[in-house]
Design brief:
The structure holds 2 protein chains of 2 kinds.
Chain A lengths: L27 H5 L19 E2 L1 E2 L3 H17 L5 H14 L1 E3 L2 E5 L3 H24 L6 H26 L1 E3 L2 E5 L3 H17 L5 H14 L1 E3 L2 E5 L3 H34 L4 H9 L16 H28 E3 L3 E5 L3 H17 L5 H14 L1 E5 L17 H8 L7
Antiparallel strand pairs in A: 1-11, 2-3, 3-4, 4-5, 5-6, 6-7, 7-8, 8-9, 9-10, 10-11
Helix pairs in contact in A: 2-3, 2-12, 3-4, 4-5, 4-13, 5-6, 5-13, 6-7, 7-8, 8-10, 10-11, 11-12
Chain B lengths: L1 E7 L6 E10 L5 E6 L8 E2 L2 E4 L9 E4 L4 E4 L6 H4 L6 H11 L3 H30 L4 H18 L2 E2 L4 H15 L3 H4 L3 E6 L7 E4 L3 E5 H7 L2 H16 L2 H20 L6 H34 L7 H11 L16 H9 L3
Parallel strand pairs in B: 9-11
Antiparallel strand pairs in B: 1-2, 1-7, 2-3, 3-4, 5-6, 6-7, 8-9, 10-11
The chains are: A alpha+beta, B alpha+beta.
């Protein structure tokens, strides 16, 4: 990727076609002079009937400061700061994402997230503590597990709804209309079926799940729509599979070479023993450190395939995406480029002991955002918000506890 | 003083340019006015009821009384405006400035973080050991039984030792228990076999000691078996298994606090780091058990250094290729264990 982490005093130029504004707003200069820093140039007119890329104006340097302070405060407060930290983190990414020269406001408060966390923590505590007190009552643990499984789709629905309602562009909030059974089917039962089908139904699943999310999304009162074609998902899946097999062969051959180099004179059982006990093997020999490389290489293959598949299916979805009232979208992610970004990001993060993680995050996010374009076909001043409340954040914490993340 | 803003009209995507004016009114108080040129209206006084905390790169969002939204065009809120915002804003402004520290400041923050982490690391051992004292024995036994039944399912087979050799080992075990009767009263010895694991013995939580047939055959010496059991019994009297469990859970909680702030791959590194720390605790426990076991042996009138014969045998078995040790291993190297034993008086 050509974009290096920007120096805070240098402007990050948006891509040429979308020269909407030059907004390096967080220079230290602007900080010193109060508001007197560089003003954002107003363009005023939004280009109608032309694709304009989204622009990401955040820099790695800014995120570095935010995350450092977040970690410090989380440590000092023994973790209580985490919800607030998360809000600041998300606000940084959304707020710096400029669609037609306006950032996206993330409106959730740390306290709202905190309440959700407390609830989920209470639920987890009940789950683990009840069996200790309910000695002799049959099926306590199983009953609780079943209860949690039943509650989970509801929490997930709430989570998507909460996040949608807390995103606003030009003071119109997003909305999500999905319900309990839809979530249970598309996010729980269908994935299980897809796995049971040895992955054959996986493309159908990712197609249907994406379509379900998108078609229930609203911008204010206006609905999104994407008519996705299962065939194109299978095409992408076959491509991803072929790429995976190719990489697997490469990595396999390479690993074999490493093994022969280190254990060249051994065969069969002794080779296996040495692999199992390799920490015990003569570590004075530098080449034996290469052994650590093998699992990393296989991990990288999986990451790369995942990124490749994600990029291409996202393209399919975004390219079919329409917002009623005249906005079309386009996504031009390259599967190999996203895979490279993710692999190299992880490598850089690993080598820098986590220090360059903010840089890696900004780099990936910027690529995702700036590969996305939107085209309004009429005035965009006429979208209206609905009046419902944002609901509660229990889902946010619950989906977090379950490690499920939904994003576009 | 004039501050440029954009105004978004309540609940719609309609917007316009405007500016905030801070002017002194007749009674010498500074008041806030909004001017929207497109409206053709004169500047009118407004009150800001809510403001988003300033954050690098993002435009602060101000909600005014009538529900319309203003966005500033810079990410920093001008000091003159702070007085007209809700009171909490000055704290957020301070945080925002803190986040913009230069490289030197960043270095100081990093040192602070490392310092706190080191403090955490030092306090995990005493806090976990303290917490272990409050874990009820029934709970510990439940964990031990569950662990044993799991091992029985996957790794262990029933012991095929002859009953008289079992009996002799039991006798030694009873003699050992008598050395520290208070702490070992509920300790039980179970015999199992496991070709997959090979010669080994374990101390599980809940005062359960597992002796594998393979170990009995491998040692082939009653005194050596006594030394091995003394070592495992030392694990029991020092509550190593349970202390290890509390330490690892505390570490997991600490790691979640430190790296939970953002969702990331860093979690994987954290688990690797706690793996390292746990292996270190385990090695320390082994050395402790070696020493305590040697003391038990001495009090039984047996050779205190007997266990080192086992080290010799294992080393001979794998022809020097398995000296143990290393950052990720649960047991110290044999050299370290020998020198640890020779430090006994």
């Amino acid at each position: 990727m050509s974009k290096k982490p920007s120096n805070p005093n240098v402007n990050t130029k948006p891509k040429s076609s979308g020269a909407l504004r030059e907004s390096e707003t967080s220079t230290r200069e602007s900080h010193k002079n109060g508001y007197g820093g560089k003003m954002i140039e107003e363009d005023g007119t939004v280009k109608i009937n032309r694709f304009t890329p989204l622009v990401f104006t955040g820099t790695a340097r800014q995120l570095f400061g935010i995350q450092f302070v977040n970690i410090l405060l989380s440590l000092i407060t023994l973790g209580i700061w985490i919800p607030w930290a998360r809000v600041r983190n998300r606000r940084f990414f959304y707020g710096n994402t400029r669609a037609l020269d306006e950032g996206i406001d993330y409106l959730a408060t740390g306290f709202a997230l905190f309440k959700g966390w407390v609830l989920v923590l209470a639920a987890i505590t009940i789950f683990y503590v009840t069996p200790l007190f309910a000695d002799g009552v049959p099926y306590v643990q199983e009953g609780l597990s079943a209860l949690f499984v039943l509650v989970y789709p509801w929490a997930l629905t709430k989570s998507i709804y909460f996040n949608a309602r807390n995103l606003a562009w030009r003071d119109v909030r997003f909305d999500w209309k999905g319900g309990y059974f839809g979530a249970a089917w598309y996010f729980f039962l269908f994935p299980v079926i897809a796995v049971l089908s040895f992955g054959l139904l996986l493309p159908v699943m990712s197609c249907k799940a994406r379509q379900y999310i998108v078609n229930n999304y609203r911008f204010g009162k206006t609905s999104f729509e994407a008519d996705l074609d299962i065939g194109s998902f299978y095409k992408v899946a076959v491509q991803a599979l072929l790429a995976f097999i190719f990489m697997l062969i490469l990595v396999g051959v390479f690993s074999f070479c490493i093994l022969v180099m280190i254990f060249g004179y051994q065969t069969g059982d002794t080779l296996f023993d040495n692999l199992m006990l390799f920490t015990a093997y003569d570590l004075g020999n530098m080449s034996s450190y290469l052994l650590y490389l093998i699992p990393l290489l296989f991990l990288a293959t999986f990451y790369a395939t995942g990124a490749f598949y994600h990029a291409l299916t996202r393209n399919i979805m975004i390219n079919k995406l329409k917002l009623h009232g005249g906005i079309k979208f386009r996504s031009e992610l390259s599967g190999t480029k996203l895979a490279w970004i993710i692999i190299s990001n992880n490598l850089v993060t690993l080598l820098s002991l986590g220090l360059l993680w903010p840089w890696a995050q900004v780099r990936r996010y910027r690529y995702m955002v700036e590969s996305t374009q939107l085209r309004p076909s009429q005035s965009i001043d006429n979208f209206i918000d609905t009046q419902s409340r944002a609901g509660h954040s229990i889902g946010d914490a619950a989906s977090d506890a379950g490690g499920i993340e939904l994003q576009f | 003083m004039q501050i440029s803003v954009t105004i978004n009209f309540k609940n719609s995507t309609k917007r316009s340019k405007g500016s905030l004016l801070i002017k002194e009114s007749e009674d010498k108080q500074k008041k806030l006015y909004l001017e929207v040129p497109d409206d053709g209206m004169k500047p009118y006084p407004i009150k800001i009821v809510h403001a988003s905390a300033p954050l690098a790169g993002t435009n602060p969002r101000l909600t005014i009384e009538d529900g319309n939204i203003l966005h500033l065009l810079t990410d920093t809120i001008p000091d003159a405006l702070i007085d007209h915002l809700p009171a909490s804003m000055s704290r957020w402004q301070a945080l925002h400035r803190f986040e913009q520290v230069g490289l030197k400041g960043m270095f100081v923050v990093m040192l602070l973080i490392v310092g706190i982490l080191y403090g955490f690391r030092l306090s995990i051992e005493p806090i976990a050991d303290f917490a272990t004292k409050f874990i009820p024995p029934e709970y510990e036994q439940a964990i031990g039984k569950a662990t044993l039944s799991q091992l029985d399912l996957f790794l262990f087979k029933t012991s095929t030792l002859e009953s008289d050799s079992k009996q002799r080992i039991e006798e030694i075990f009873i003699n050992l228990k008598a050395l520290d009767p208070d702490k070992t009263v509920s300790t039980q010895l179970v015999f199992r076999s496991s070709p997959a694991i090979g010669p080994n013995a374990f101390a599980l939580p809940g005062n359960i000691i597992v002796l594998l047939d393979e170990m009995v055959e491998f040692a082939d010496d009653e005194d050596l078996i006594a030394a091995i059991m003394a070592h495992e019994l030392a694990h029991v009297t020092k509550r190593h298994a349970m202390r290890y469990i509390t330490r690892s859970s505390l570490l997991a909680v600490a790691a979640a606090i430190i790296f939970g702030a953002d969702d990331s791959l860093i979690e994987e590194f954290a688990s690797m780091g706690s793996g390292l720390a746990l292996a270190k605790y385990s090695r320390k426990f082994e050395l402790e058990a070696d020493q305590q076991g040697a003391e038990y042996m001495q009090r039984l009138g047996l050779d205190a250094y007997k266990i080192s014969k086992l080290f010799d045998m294992i080393e001979a078995e794998c022809e020097g290729a398995c000296d143990g040790g290393g950052f990720f291993t649960s047991h110290p190297s044999f050299a370290e264990r020998r020198s640890n034993l020779s430090n006994l008086e």
